[in-house]
Each structure stands twice: as C-alpha cells, then as structure tokens.
Amino acid sequence: MKKSQKHDANLQKNTTLYFQIGLIVCLLATFGLLEMKFETTIPEFGEGLPPLDEPIPIDVPLIKTKVPEIVEPVQQKQRKQPESYKEVPNDTPENLFKEAFEEPQIDTPPLNPDDFVPPVEKPEESVNVRFVAIQDAPIYPGCEKAKGNEARKKCMSEKISKLVRRKFNGSDIASGYGLQGRQKIDVEFTIDRTGKVTGIKTRAPHPKLREEAERVINYIPEMTPGRQHDKNVGVIYNLPIIFQVE
To answer: Which fold has domain 128-245?
Structure first.
C-alpha cells in the first residue's frame, strides 16, 4: 500500500525546522560562553602579620669587640758616620792558610820504655777433656813402655779393670741386702792435672753398691797426667761395673 505524498512533505518540513532550531541554540550557547566573565582571586601574602605602623621588638645580642691598640713604630737611631777611616791591609791567601794550618806545640817529656808495666796474665782455668778425646792419655803405672796414645789408653783401661775385679766385693753386699740378678754401677772420675783421681761420681741401685765402688776407685794410684795442646789437663774417665748375683 503506498504512502501518501502529504505525509512525505510534512517530514521534510519538520527536518528543516529542527535543524534551524538546533543551529540557533548552538549559536546562543557560544555567545553566552564568550560573554561570561571568570573572576580570579590573588592570594595576599603576609596575612596574620601585625600592621606596619606597630613596632616589632627584636633582641639583638651585644658583641664586644676589642679595639686594637695603636703601637707607635720604633724609631731606629741613625748611625753616625765616622769622621775618619783607618786603612787596614787585606789578608792574603798565604797568611790565611798559615794561621789555619799552624801546628800547635805541646811540651811533653819523652816516653820511657821502663814506665810500661806488662799486663798480669790471668791464671788458666782448668779444662777437663773426655778420655776418648784426649791427645796424650794419662800413663798408668806399668804402662810406660806402651807406644802411642791408643796403646796407653788400652793399657790404662786393662789395669783399672783388673784392679776393680780384684778389690770389688759385690757378692757379700748382694747376699747381705737381698740383691739378685744383674747389677750395674756407673762410675765417673777425673784424673786432674797432677795425675790424682778426684771428683768420683757413682750411680747404683743400692747405696751400699755406690759406697763400695767409690772405695775401690780410691785404690787407683797416681798417674802421669794427660796433656792437650802441650798442656796438662784433667781427664774424665767413665767406668761401668757390672756383675751377676746368683
């Protein structure tokens, strides 16, 4: 069914009317915005301060300053010019060296050689040397015919061992004090620079054995002393005594 032409004409009129009304409203709104005034407020600084007419009290500390003293400059005295001059001869290099290197003269009597006293020699300290390191071993009585140091050492050791076996009475001491088994006594003595036996030291498991060993060592006769570097010295000799108690 076809629409009428009258209805189409009304729609076209209404559209034109609405467009005109909208354009007018936009123009009015634009004009109103242009004519509007916006107020701005500028903040005022210094609010709350007292008015300038009233005085504000301020405490200012006092600063003490020392006024510098004015020191008057010292006036130097003017030197007086000498009225007359004395001519002095210049020192020549020869005179200067002569005074500097002139040898002083000392009056001393001549030295007498008899005035010098030789120093007193200190007595030599006794030095003991071990039997194994002695250069010339002591000579035991009966070993004078032994030739060489080693032969004299061997002869001396054999003589002392025979003396100990003959004089030492260990069996009676062992039975009297209940000693059993193997007993060892360490003996050390010194043959001094005169050839005498001194400084006997013993160590044994029983005091009676030490006494017996010291008694036997005292039987060793006086010998010809040992020598080291052509001087008489003491010789340290060690002798172990060992016996078995059955």
So the answer is: 3.30.1150
